[in-house]
Design goal:
Blueprint lengths: L3 H11 L2 E4 L3 E9 L6 E13 L2 E12 L5 H8 L6 E5 L2 E9 L5 H21 L7
Antiparallel strand pairs: 1-2, 2-3, 3-4, 4-6, 5-6
Length: about 130
Protein backbone atom coordinates (compact mmCIF):
# COMPACT_ATOMS: atom_id res chain seq x y z
CA UNK A 1 0.00 0.00 0.00
CA UNK A 2 1.33 3.43 -0.95
CA UNK A 3 1.56 6.20 1.62
CA UNK A 4 1.23 9.97 1.25
CA UNK A 5 5.04 10.14 1.55
CA UNK A 6 5.36 7.66 -1.35
CA UNK A 7 3.09 9.81 -3.51
CA UNK A 8 4.98 12.99 -2.63
CA UNK A 9 8.31 11.34 -3.44
CA UNK A 10 6.96 10.07 -6.77
CA UNK A 11 5.70 13.55 -7.69
CA UNK A 12 9.03 15.14 -6.71
CA UNK A 13 10.87 12.77 -9.06
CA UNK A 14 8.48 13.16 -12.00
CA UNK A 15 7.11 16.71 -11.86
CA UNK A 16 8.05 20.23 -10.82
CA UNK A 17 6.31 21.09 -7.58
CA UNK A 18 5.31 24.73 -7.09
CA UNK A 19 4.10 24.44 -3.47
CA UNK A 20 4.52 21.64 -0.95
CA UNK A 21 2.71 21.62 2.38
CA UNK A 22 2.14 18.81 4.89
CA UNK A 23 -1.19 17.69 3.39
CA UNK A 24 -1.17 19.10 -0.15
CA UNK A 25 1.02 19.76 -3.16
CA UNK A 26 0.55 22.44 -5.80
CA UNK A 27 1.63 21.95 -9.40
CA UNK A 28 1.77 24.35 -12.30
CA UNK A 29 1.30 22.94 -15.81
CA UNK A 30 1.99 24.84 -19.01
CA UNK A 31 0.11 24.01 -22.21
CA UNK A 32 -0.12 25.58 -25.64
CA UNK A 33 -3.51 27.18 -26.16
CA UNK A 34 -5.46 25.46 -28.92
CA UNK A 35 -6.97 28.81 -29.88
CA UNK A 36 -4.06 31.24 -29.61
CA UNK A 37 -0.96 29.01 -29.62
CA UNK A 38 0.29 30.88 -26.55
CA UNK A 39 1.31 29.23 -23.28
CA UNK A 40 -1.49 28.71 -20.77
CA UNK A 41 -0.76 28.08 -17.08
CA UNK A 42 -2.94 25.55 -15.27
CA UNK A 43 -2.74 25.29 -11.50
CA UNK A 44 -3.42 21.94 -9.83
CA UNK A 45 -3.77 20.90 -6.21
CA UNK A 46 -3.22 17.35 -4.92
CA UNK A 47 -4.49 16.98 -1.39
CA UNK A 48 -4.55 14.18 1.17
CA UNK A 49 -8.17 13.97 2.39
CA UNK A 50 -10.36 11.59 4.34
CA UNK A 51 -13.31 9.99 2.54
CA UNK A 52 -15.45 7.19 3.94
CA UNK A 53 -13.03 6.97 6.86
CA UNK A 54 -9.95 6.28 4.75
CA UNK A 55 -7.13 8.38 3.24
CA UNK A 56 -7.75 9.48 -0.34
CA UNK A 57 -6.01 11.77 -2.80
CA UNK A 58 -8.07 14.60 -4.24
CA UNK A 59 -7.00 16.40 -7.41
CA UNK A 60 -8.43 19.87 -8.08
CA UNK A 61 -7.94 22.16 -11.10
CA UNK A 62 -9.66 25.54 -11.43
CA UNK A 63 -11.55 26.04 -14.67
CA UNK A 64 -13.45 29.36 -14.55
CA UNK A 65 -15.57 31.44 -12.23
CA UNK A 66 -19.12 30.10 -11.99
CA UNK A 67 -20.54 33.40 -13.27
CA UNK A 68 -18.55 33.08 -16.53
CA UNK A 69 -19.95 29.73 -17.65
CA UNK A 70 -23.34 28.35 -18.53
CA UNK A 71 -24.31 25.61 -16.05
CA UNK A 72 -25.95 23.53 -18.81
CA UNK A 73 -22.74 23.60 -20.87
CA UNK A 74 -20.73 22.48 -17.85
CA UNK A 75 -23.12 19.60 -17.13
CA UNK A 76 -23.09 18.44 -20.74
CA UNK A 77 -19.30 18.51 -20.82
CA UNK A 78 -19.14 16.67 -17.51
CA UNK A 79 -20.61 13.59 -19.23
CA UNK A 80 -17.68 13.46 -21.68
CA UNK A 81 -14.92 13.25 -19.09
CA UNK A 82 -12.80 10.11 -18.93
CA UNK A 83 -11.46 10.94 -15.46
CA UNK A 84 -12.99 13.00 -12.67
CA UNK A 85 -15.89 15.38 -12.80
CA UNK A 86 -16.77 19.05 -12.92
CA UNK A 87 -17.91 20.56 -9.64
CA UNK A 88 -18.53 24.02 -8.22
CA UNK A 89 -16.55 25.23 -5.22
CA UNK A 90 -16.13 28.70 -3.74
CA UNK A 91 -17.51 30.40 -6.85
CA UNK A 92 -15.39 28.39 -9.31
CA UNK A 93 -15.99 25.44 -11.59
CA UNK A 94 -13.26 22.89 -10.95
CA UNK A 95 -12.12 19.56 -12.30
CA UNK A 96 -12.10 17.10 -9.41
CA UNK A 97 -11.01 13.49 -8.97
CA UNK A 98 -10.65 11.46 -5.79
CA UNK A 99 -8.87 8.11 -5.48
CA UNK A 100 -8.22 5.87 -2.47
CA UNK A 101 -4.62 6.03 -1.30
CA UNK A 102 -4.77 2.34 -0.34
CA UNK A 103 -5.19 1.14 -3.93
CA UNK A 104 -3.39 3.88 -5.84
CA UNK A 105 -1.55 2.99 -9.02
CA UNK A 106 1.06 5.76 -9.34
CA UNK A 107 1.31 5.47 -13.14
CA UNK A 108 -2.47 5.85 -13.53
CA UNK A 109 -2.45 8.66 -10.96
CA UNK A 110 0.21 10.52 -12.94
CA UNK A 111 -1.81 10.11 -16.15
CA UNK A 112 -4.89 11.39 -14.31
CA UNK A 113 -2.98 14.47 -13.15
CA UNK A 114 -1.94 15.22 -16.72
CA UNK A 115 -5.43 14.61 -18.13
CA UNK A 116 -7.21 16.76 -15.55
CA UNK A 117 -4.80 19.68 -15.90
CA UNK A 118 -4.96 19.58 -19.70
CA UNK A 119 -8.74 19.26 -19.78
CA UNK A 120 -9.28 22.12 -17.31
CA UNK A 121 -7.04 24.41 -19.39
CA UNK A 122 -8.71 23.33 -22.64
CA UNK A 123 -12.21 23.66 -21.23
CA UNK A 124 -11.53 27.18 -19.97
CA UNK A 125 -11.05 28.27 -23.59
CA UNK A 126 -14.09 26.42 -24.94
CA UNK A 127 -16.77 27.36 -22.41
CA UNK A 128 -19.58 29.41 -23.91
CA UNK A 129 -19.92 32.67 -22.03
CA UNK A 130 -22.87 32.89 -19.69
CA UNK A 131 -25.68 35.10 -20.96
CA UNK A 132 -25.70 38.59 -19.45
CA UNK A 133 -28.88 40.11 -18.10
Amino acid sequence: MATWDDVREHLRKKLTIAVEEASWIGLGWTFKSEQTGMDVLQRQRIELVQAIGEPHLMILCDIVEVARARPDAMLVHNMTLAVGSIAASDGWYVMKAVTPLETIDLRYFERSLTYLAHEAARLRELIPAAPTS
